[in-house]
Design goal:
The complex is a heterodimer. Chain A has 16 helices and 11 strands. By secondary structure, chain A is an alpha/beta fold. The radius of gyration of chain A is 21 Å and the shape is globular. Chain B is α+β, with helices and mostly antiparallel strands. Chain B has 3 domains: about 290 residues, no CATH class; about 110 residues, no CATH class; about 60 residues, Orthogonal Bundle (Arc Repressor Mutant, subunit A), CATH 1.10.10.410. In chain B, a hairpin with a 4-residue loop joins β12 and β13. The relative contact order of chain B is 0.09. The chains are: A alpha/beta, B alpha+beta. The interface between A and B is large, with 45 and 28 residues.
Chain lengths: ~475, ~475
């Protein structure tokens, strides 16, 4: 079936005119129509625009143009602004907001000929680890619809796992690509901070947010990242450094690769989870890699550090949602203060409010030094720990999450337990490092992820290592029942 | 009552930088456009947009820093100042807080008694302006115009070094002159391109610690600065002397009533929750950039004044006036160039005298003068070569101003050429003496002051054209010689 083909296979068939982009697009739109209602992964379907885009891609193909993504359908996380299409960020606040421009990521993929099918559900303003904070309701995990798909890019991950699109975009502020990728058994890549433009991506925590991609394989992800990555003059924090040819580097030999095993990742790790990682390591050893144990002494401080820095930035980033120029405005405000209070009170959900309040508190006079400033110092220490580790090893391998997908509703009233879900992923965000998650087996019938973290701008190395593991394993080829 | 009190004033001047586009977006900064026509998605703070720093604004800030001998920070940080207001689209203003681009510098001002005082500049930092709220013509609503949102400002913060409203005005004028010299700000105060907040406190003379200060916001004319500060000083002294206490607060100056009014107290003040803006990298400047900016510095006002005094023998006061703007200095120098340096004092008197009053009368800038430097030097040359007297020259100047013709044409057409023919003057003198025998007798009897009477009669008879020096000499010889 078309929805199980790799990007390379799809590109070949499109080039050989065995299928058209319009046919491919109709196929995925039909799957969305049939399968999405039970998943709630896609919240906006742009069928008419998709078919127009597919027809345009077909004309380009007919004219002899070729491209890895030309005519390939995709779904964007609803955090990316899409010109003329509702961009809600999973919030009531932006339920009525039609973006007047394309995010750089969207524009680049559009220019490459990718065809947007719609927008994916997400935790409200990307704040959540289970996709339960969305104004549009929770997303269900296709492996077990009583379970969460992870978050915040839960809609993208579930849609990809259910084969509703061959590519989905996502964003990762504290694990929001890697954690849902792990919980839905797919490949999720969070690039180096600055590798992909943030322009047009609605900000949660600006110093941590990074756009990335979900795909079924590392090879597919490499092809997409190739298009997404690169300097953007509209984003001062994007880095002007050349983008390697990721697909061409996938098979670089792993012989001599030094893999770091983080003591802090393995201490207390559940046995079955650890066993899956050790299975993967055995394959790496057989491919000629070596393992070295390393320690990042400050890593256990990641979660508290993150939950100071991220809310601080979010409290400021979300100030623009004031009911004045766009988004939700309360009915009949009596005065300016009420306009603010009610518009924001009604527009934001509980988790967003919790983080705005936390962030406002840690930036307040008298608390700034004790919280924000201290967190920034710890962040520096964590970054230094990683730098020191990468003097000794080429990449780090460990679990993506402590547990497989948990039940919808299980942690929603216990924010601290919920936050601990990101214990293995947050470090890479604090240090701005690239990381990815690939499927490495099952626990209790649910997929688990293996996480790779590398030095800045080592995406090619990470994708290569992931690709070569996927050539030696078949975890990534498994589809959830009913979505094969 | 003032005698017992010392006044302490510091100013925060906001100079709008004359960049083509805004500090963090590509929108134009032209004043007076229809509301919200110069507001891009970035200025409107749409979801997902990001700021990109305008290099021209950095260039201008550094130029100012170099002109006041300040340290230029190799690394400075943009911070967010968080507060809610409808004209602040992001809910925060991007400013510089802990690490500004321009550090400590200083400026010299001249006081009324001619002494020079140095005023410290604590810092100058880059920030964006807010938009403005419009209330007129809207029923039960306020409008927001975001054209100004994101306009680059340089906030220049002084040390609390000023001790009177006059000093504050002198300092503000000095900064005004400088930013216009540097061509980094148009200095237009009506349009709000140059405005200030004044921090004012009083303390008993001899007390080392400062009194509690009040901050008067948004003063946009030199006159308002002076009056608002004077009012505030009197208010604070009255308050303390009648047993009250000054509270730290922000006050607004009402120019119609000439008073300041409380806007908000310290307790009501916002907690701005400053933190480094994660959307912008630290601003890092290398020596090459700083040197390149240094290379664009023009001759500065103090340098120009010193040169005028040295090369043209002008008084410090005159040199100061003539260097008060680049345009005025250029005008003066053009006149001197045509006339010759030995006549610089004459040129200075005319530029500061007749020309300035004509400009003031019409409220015109020097660049809009109806008499060009060439035309003025043409007139002054006729004084130098004694074709006309200084007095006649004033009439010629007025004619030049209104008719736009060169001095020579007016002198010829109106027959104003000075009479320098001794015989002709002698003839008039003889006629005047003959017609006034009584006055002649009185003069010769010792009433010396009648000399002036005879001068006046001759001038009257010649229509003021007799060469004054010759007339003086010939008349004296005639009267005294018999």
């Amino acid at each position: 079936m078309m929805h199980n083909l790799s990007l390379g296979e799809l590109a070949d068939r499109l080039a050989g005119r065995q299928i058209s982009s319009v046919e491919l697009t109709r196929h995925f739109l039909a799957r969305i129509e049939r399968l999405n209602p039970s998943l709630n992964a896609v919240i906006t379907v742009t069928a008419a625009q998709a078919l127009d885009g597919a027809a345009a891609a077909d004309r380009r193909l007919a004219a002899g143009e070729r491209g890895r993504l030309l005519g390939i359908p995709l779904i964007h996380k609803d955090i990316f602004c899409t010109d003329g299409v509702r961009t809600s960020c999973g919030s009531r606040m932006l339920d009525n907001f039609t973006a007047p421009y394309d995010a750089t990521v969207v524009a680049r993929l559009k220019a490459a000929g990718a065809v947007m099918l719609g927008k994916a559900n997400m935790d409200e303003f990307a704040m959540g680890s289970s996709n339960e904070t969305s104004y549009y309701g929770p997303v269900k995990n296709p492996w077990d619809t009583t379970k969460v798909p992870g978050g915040s890019s839960g809609g993208s991950a579930a849609a990809l796992a259910a084969r509703l699109a061959p590519i989905c975009t996502g964003t990762d502020t504290g694990g929001s690509i890697r954690q849902p990728a792990a919980l839905t058994g797919i490949t999720g890549v969070k690039p180096t901070y600055g590798r992909v433009s943030r322009y047009g991506m609605i900000a949660f925590a600006s110093s941590l947010d990074q756009a990335g991609v979900f795909a079924r394989t590392a090879a597919d992800a490499a092809a997409v990242l190739q298009i997404m990555a690169g300097f953007d003059p509209n984003d001062s924090t994007s880095v002007d450094t050349p983008v390697p040819d990721y697909p061409a580097l996938l098979d670089a030999p792993l012989k001599g690769l030094k893999i770091g095993l983080l003591r802090e990742f393995f201490d207390g790790l559940e046995e079955r989870n650890a066993a899956l990682i050790h299975d993967a390591l055995k394959i790496y050893l057989s491919l000629g890699a070596d393992t070295v144990e390393v320690s990042l002494p400050h890593l256990p401080l990641s979660v508290p550090t993150y939950y100071v820095v991220a809310p601080a930035e979010c409290s400021s980033n979300l100030s623009r949602f004031d009911g004045v120029r766009f988004g939700h405005r309360c009915a009949q405000p009596r005065d300016l203060e009420e306009l603010y209070k009610r518009s924001r009170g009604e527009g934001f959900g509980a988790e967003v409010k919790r983080r705005i309040m936390t962030g406002t508190y840690v930036l307040s006079a008298g608390y700034f030094d004790a919280y924000y400033l201290k967190a920034q110092k710890v962040r520096r220490l964590i970054t230094d720990d990683f730098r020191a580790a990468f003097q000794k090893v080429d990449l780090l391998v460990g679990p993506t999450t402590p547990t497989p997908a948990f039940a919808i509703g299980a942690k929603v009233n216990d924010p601290v337990t919920m936050y601990l879900n990101d214990i293995y992923t947050i470090g890479a965000n604090l240090a701005g490092l690239p990381g990815l998650s690939i499927p490495c087996g099952f626990v209790d019938g649910l997929p688990m992820g293996l996480q790779l973290i590398g030095p800045h701008f080592s995406e090619a190395r990470l994708l290569g290592a992931a690709h070569q593991l996927q050539r030696a394993t078949a975890w990534h080829a498994q589809a959830p029942g009913g979505y094969e | 009552m003032m005698a017992n009190w010392e006044v302490v004033i510091g100013l925060e001047i906001h100079a709008q930088l004359a960049t083509k586009s805004k500090i963090f977006s590509g929108s134009a900064t032209t004043y007076g456009a229809a509301p919200n026509t110069q507001a891009s998605l970035i200025d409107l703070a749409y979801p997902g947009v990001l700021p990109v720093l305008n290099e021209q604004a950095v260039h201008m800030a550094v130029k100012f820093g170099l002109a006041i001998g300040a340290t230029i920070a190799r690394r400075s940080i943009f911070a967010r100042k968080n507060y809610f207001y409808p004209d602040l689209p992001k809910g925060y203003q991007i400013s510089q807080y802990e690490q500004p681009v321009v550090g400590k510098g200083s400026l010299a001002i001249m006081l009324d008694d001619g002494t020079v005082k140095t005023i410290g500049v604590t810092r100058a930092h880059l920030e964006e302006d807010a938009g403005k709220s419009l209330h007129e013509g809207l029923a039960n609503a306020s409008g927001i115009d975001l054209n100004r949102a994101g306009t680059p400002l340089l906030e220049i913060v002084s040390e609390p070094d000023m001790r009177s409203a006059k000093e504050a005005v002198a300092y503000m004028k000095k900064v005004h002159t400088l930013v216009r010299y540097l061509e980094i700000c148009d200095g237009n105060m009506q349009e709000g391109s140059f405005r200030c907040d004044a921090n004012v406190s009083v303390r008993p003379r001899g007390q080392a610690t400062f009194g509690t200060r009040a901050e008067i916001k948004n003063l946009n004319s030199f006159r308002f600065v002076e009056k608002a500060i004077q009012y505030e000083i009197a208010r604070q002294i009255d308050l303390i002397e009648s047993g009250g206490k000054v509270v730290q607060e922000t006050r607004l100056y009402d120019s119609d009533k000439n008073e300041t009014r409380s806007m908000r107290s310290k307790e009501e003040a916002n907690d701005y929750r400053y933190f480094p803006d994660p959307d912008l990298l630290p601003l890092e400047l290398d020596q090459h950039f700083i040197d390149a900016v240094r290379g664009t510095l023009p001759e500065l006002p103090d340098e120009k004044a010193a040169r005028f005094a040295r090369d043209f023998g002008l008084s410090a006061y005159d040199a100061g006036v003539l260097s008060a703007s680049r345009e005025l200095g250029a005008y003066f120098e053009a006149v001197v160039a045509a006339l010759g340096a030995p006549h610089a004092k004459l040129a200075a008197n005319w530029v500061m005298g007749e020309l300035s009053s004509a400009l003031n009368r019409e409220n015109a800038e020097i660049t809009a003068s109806r008499v060009s430097p060439t035309a003025l030097s043409g007139l002054l040359a006729r004084i130098v070569d004694a074709t006309i007297s200084g007095k006649i020259a004033k009439d010629v100047f007025e004619a030049m101003w209104s008719e736009g013709r060169p001095a020579d044409a007016i002198i010829e057409a109106k027959g104003l050429r000075q009479i320098t023919d001794s015989l002709e003057i002698q003839g008039v003198i003889d006629a005047v003496i003959a017609a006034n025998p009584k006055q002649l007798a009185d003069y010769r009897a010792g009433k010396d002051k009648l000399f002036g009477f005879f001068i006046g009669q001759v001038m009257k008879a010649t229509g003021g054209k007799a060469n004054p020096a010759q007339l003086n000499e010939l008349l004296k010889a005639k009267l005294d010689g018999g």
